[in-house]
Amino acid sequence: MTSRRSTAVCASTLAAALALGATACGGDPVTAAGGDGKALAGQTLTVAGVWSGAEQKNFQKVLDAFTAKTGAQTRFVSTGDNVSTVVGSKIEGGNAPDVVMVPQVGVLRQFAARKWLAPLPEKVEKSVDSNYAPVWKGYGSVDGTLYGLYFKASNKSTVWYSPDVLDQAGVQPPKTYDEMLAAARAVADSGTPAFAVAGEDGWTLTDWFENVYLSQAGPEKYDRLARHEIKWTDPSVVESLKTLSKLFSDDKLLAGGRNGALATDFPGSVEKVFGPKPEAGMVYEGDFVAGVAKDEFGRKIGEDAKFFPFPAVGGGKAPVVSGGDAAVVLKDGRNRKAADAFLEFLATPEAAAVWAAEGGFLSPNKALDTAAYGDPTLRATAESLVGAGDSVRFDMSDQAPAAFGGTKGAGEWKILQDFLRDPSDPAATAAELEAAAAKAFRTANQG
Asked: What separation in angstroms does the CA of 144 have from each of 129, 164, 316, 322, 396?
């Protein structure tokens, strides 16, 4: 097994190795387009994505590795959360990026419906067939054509906690949702609110719902609800909202109560657990919590910041919900050759290894040696994601039209914020969700 030290050395020298067409850390030859550092010299690739801060910085290292390998210069454009609007305006203005890192399945489908996307090269499709679980190809395809390569994924079924706080309360990481609520009450009774909930960011609330729903209702219903083949007024939805209300309705379990949760954004929720003055014992969100805890607050992942899998609800199985960013090629981009070469590069484990070493990143690519991850905890979250195979389910809100599942202050985000504010009537919330979903899907289908 590769040692942590050798993994770090391998990661730090990877970009240089790529430039020389060397072998990958595991000894396999680098095969992405070019390899002599000159194949695309003089060309510039423009890549757009939502990332900023540490994520943008880490993705830039991937872009730099591509430059070292091919000679192509790169330019990253941050779109913010409204990817569809920003990319649409750039296309209309004749300034389309070559590649877009799309964070939502629904947006990818929207782009394809508008005829903005080029099918991915055959070489990329072969890599996906060989090295990805079939579910990932399905999420990247529209009507049987592969348009999106999932480069970055996340395990959104992780609950992060302070070992000191749980030890003080005398509780162990729970295996079921009811055990988690019992542990939360014990933590609260010990003097620390149990959960920091990032209610100011509506997307975190959709993630809470999706984990409960996948476990409680099962994958078949999850898929049907994601496609709006069953209504949000279905009894299974109401039941999951009731389950979620057991947490949301108990103010003593939430840092700052419901009002405090609604005033807390995602980084703030991590700070409440792992910051200099802890205000809660646990925070639910994806594996990317580790990056914030480590980079912003100096926590040692696996020591003073740990996680347990989102627990099973009722008689269901423990859920594995994922999100991710798919690379797509725009037809109107100015540099198709560089774009195709970049997608070929992203499909390799070498590209994934660059970011894996930095943290805050998981790859659904089975060919990536998990030794590339910088610490055992991230390795465990990656192994859980890849090991789930076809049972992984993509974030449901990210599969929906953006008007329902991906718009700040509207649709599912806003309705679940209202539910957090007052979780007393799950049936009424389900009716609101159905009205918003029906409108958004109807508009999307017409478009």
From this structure: 13, 50, 31, 22, 20
Q: Which residues contact 322 (CB under 8 A, 6 or more apart)?
A: 153, 154, 155, 156, 364, 385, 392, 393, 394, 395
Tell me how far CA of residue 230 lies from CA of 223, 234, 406, in angstroms: 9, 7, 20
Report the alpha-carbon distance of residue 79 to residue 50 in Å, rounded. Answer: 5
Read off the amino acid at residue 91: I
Q: Which domains does the chain have, with CATH numbers?
A: 4-155+322-393 (3.40.190.10), 168-319+403-446 (3.40.190.10)
The tokens of 299 are what? Answer: 């926590």
Q: What is the pLDDT of residue 295?
A: 86
What's the burial of 297, exposed, middle or buried (CB within 10 Å: 0-12/13-18/19+)? middle
Q: Report pLDDT digits (tens) over 296-309.
A: 999 999 999 999 99
* CB of 389 closer than 8 Å to CB of 133: yes
- Between CA 355 and CA 112, with CA 141 as vertex, the angle to 5 degrees is 100
Number of C-alpha atoms within 13 angstroms, CB side, residue 87?
30
Lowest mean pLDDT segment, chosen from 240-254, 396-410, 427-441:
396-410
Q: How many whole angstroms separate alpha carbon 247 and alpha carbon 225? A: 23
* pLDDT one-digit tens code per residue, 118-175: 999 999 999 999 999 999 999 999 999 999 999 999 999 999 999 999 999 999 999 9
Whether the model clears a pTM of 0.70, i.e. scores above it, the answer is yes
Dihedral of CA atoms 91, 92, 93, 97 in degrees, nearest 10, equals 0
Q: Which residues pair with 48 in a beta bridge?
A: 77, 100
Q: What integer is the mean pLDDT of 75-96?
A: 92
CB atoms within 10 A of CB 403: 20
Do the Cβ atoms of 202 and 261 come closer than 8 Å? Answer: no
